[in-house]
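Morning, I've got a small favour to ask if you have a moment. I've dropped the whole record in just underneath, so have a look.
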Amino acid sequence: MTTAPIVVRKYGGSSVADLDRLRRIADALGSVAQAGHPLVVVVSAMGKTTSELIALAEQAGSAGGADELPRRELDMLVSTGERVTMALLSIILHGLGQRAVSFTGSQSGIITTDTHFDARVVEVRPHRLERALSEGRIAIVAGYQGMSRSGEITTLGRGGSDTSAVALAGALRAECCEIYSDVDGVYTSDPNRVREALHLPWIGYDFMAAMADAGARVLNREAVRLARQRGTRILARSSFDQAAVPRETQVTSDSAAPARRALVELVEAVRLSGPLDSWAAFVEATTSLDLALPETRRDRTHWHAWIKHDNESLTKLERHARHELSIHRGLSLVSLVGSAASDTPAAAALLAGYCEHVFTAPLRASALMTPARARALVPELHHRWIQPHPTSPPGPTFLPHTSIQPLSRH
């Protein structure tokens, strides 16, 4: 294989939403390939294809009277979305005179656990990709999917294309993994909800993982875990940034990154609680478990947890747990995240001044509340949590080895 640095890029659903955007990506990829870089491109399904396929599966389940959707068949269905994108992009590249070849997740060597619809990567054998790169081809890979050791098609959960890209970057020893989406990196909060939100040019793996746990959608948590495991640097960029030098967030080791703080709000959170003897049914019924805290109430010991809203998991929970489970929908989870050792107790103390029940997890403190309460409280909490924090130094002085022609939003 060539010794030039391998470039691994991932493009999210908004970046590949239609043929015009795929053509713009193809033009940019051609420039990278002509510069001599071996190029692996991981793609998501186009636009909202995955959500549409899941909705279609739910309709099929209702038509057949199914109590629950078989997850193996869900994997067979939703994995087709990324395959459509990979084939179309490869076709466009061929028309532009580029040597491109597409691969499914299994063909690219991504080996996963047997858990359908929420599998984890356990090994990567990128032999076919390495051969394609050695032949001077652009490798286009369907993200979000792999194959279990028993030969079953699996998918990697929401945001799984990030996981695919980082796993391949690590296996191919790429110097970094570039994640392109509709945002230009990580902010101290959602800039659409908090006008004072600040762009963070450089953060650590653990800090990013804590933000993802709290509900931030910029990067998939499993992708961050794999990046930390292999020491793969992540660059989070926007496909639509029109600036001459686009902004980005670089995610590297926590020991090198400066101290950071952020506020994350997860909307459509669900609070659950029940007696300890219903815990097993809860664990069996949901793959969205994020945090559970035991609590003693008078003469009974209950467990409490919150999950991201998931109709299928909630329906299954209600069926198995019956009256033993208390489900409170339509909440917001507000989390203060900090990378310094003293930040978690400080975050808990700040939240406690506004909320009755505060719980902590590594690098964050969180509280559930009504959406109306969150709308009123989030800007104030952001100001009090972020503004007193000393201004951190700018991002590291890594020089990106490629640049992308920004996509048009029109």
User: Anything to note?
Assistant: The mean pLDDT is 87. The chain has two domains: 7-252, 261-386. Residues 17 and 47 are 4 Å apart (CA to CA). Residues 7-252 form a domain with the Carbamate kinase fold (CATH 3.40.1160.10).
